Amino acid sequence: MSYPEVIEQSNQVLKALVDAGERVLGYIYPHPPHEIIIAHGLKPSLVRTNPSVVGAYEASLQTFSCSLTRNLFSQRVNNSFPQLAGIVFSGNTCDALQNVGDVWRKRFPKDNVFRLTYPVGDLGASSVDFLAMEIKAFSDELASLYGEEFSESSFREAIMLLDEIRNALQLLYCVRILHPSLISYNTLSSLVGEFLTAPTQEAADRIKMTWNEVLERIENMGQRNKVGQLRDSLLNHDLSDFETVIDTSGPRIAVIGGMIEPNTVAGLLENVHGISDTTLVLDMLSFGFKTVFTPPVGIEDDPYEESARSILGAHSEPTQEGLPKRITFLKDVLTRLSIHGLIVCEQSFCDPDEFESPSLERAAKEVGVPTVKLPLDSELSDRARIEGRIQTFLETIDDN
Ligand code: SF4
Q1: Are the CB atoms for 285 and 264 separated by under 8 Å?
Q2: Quick one: pLDDT at residue 36?
Q3: pTM
């Protein structure tokens, strides 16, 4: 599915939800507290960039705004933005989001604009406490604005729903890594896209149905346990105990980067001449792998603490401290999962991506994996050249 088709489909889903009387809360940063939002009777939905809207110069924005925030702001300025009950900006993640959130509130005072501030560092229990307090304040704001108090029963239902979705997607990610011929990257990225558009029961049913179809074949191959072991290792951020022989016929590529959707990457690869359906075996993108491999929210403790623990248990972002851990994990992925080439995506004018990518390239080089860096803007204005670079890169990969 092309990215414009993804946006069209996403808009239709959102419209159907709104027509059915649902309130949709948009988010921009990849780790919103989904379960808490649902516990207030709202549907969380990723606010997507739109390649057909030019994120042009906007006098209200600071010069350091990235292409993603410019595109979102331009959609709002020209009224092509989806119908949302509110929008959540993150604090402490990057200057661009912090600033655009402030400008948005000033420029569109009737919009319900929220800010959820994330801890930058990984300080264990202190970071959990900090984020739990932030999520509690956010939850109180939702209750006061929409008049719907936090519901314990809806929270528990949301935990089960998100578990179903993430669990099936995690297993499908692992199947794609171990046996890429069993599920195409296009299918996987479309399912992730459905989750991002709205974590509904319908989306969960489609994702589970795909997993059940794949499961039968995995069981026939005697690989069910291996898929489960890989899922556990990826959830624990530790591949050191994972051993398997991967069939490496043909090059195996991974893609890494920040706030870029798997659907965008799948759309780019569609036009790359000669690429095989089994070439891209793993994305390590913020809106893909890092969102999917988020540990479940527990039910034992305070809901805000459990929610914070789950968010902070996900693989960390370029906006957070923890680069050495990310580098160690990347090297393990490249070596233990038989990756022959790495595509490093950078959102144009994104400081966190631009600070991170030299370290990613160096790490790959240290384990003998070639890389190509792709600067992407939300309009994919350089599309033909980017596709050409991917093709040239693939031609240089040695998969022996
Ligand atoms: S793309 Fe980069 S600069 Fe833009 S909002 Fe995301 S992290 Fe911030």
Answers
A1: no
A2: 98
A3: 0.95
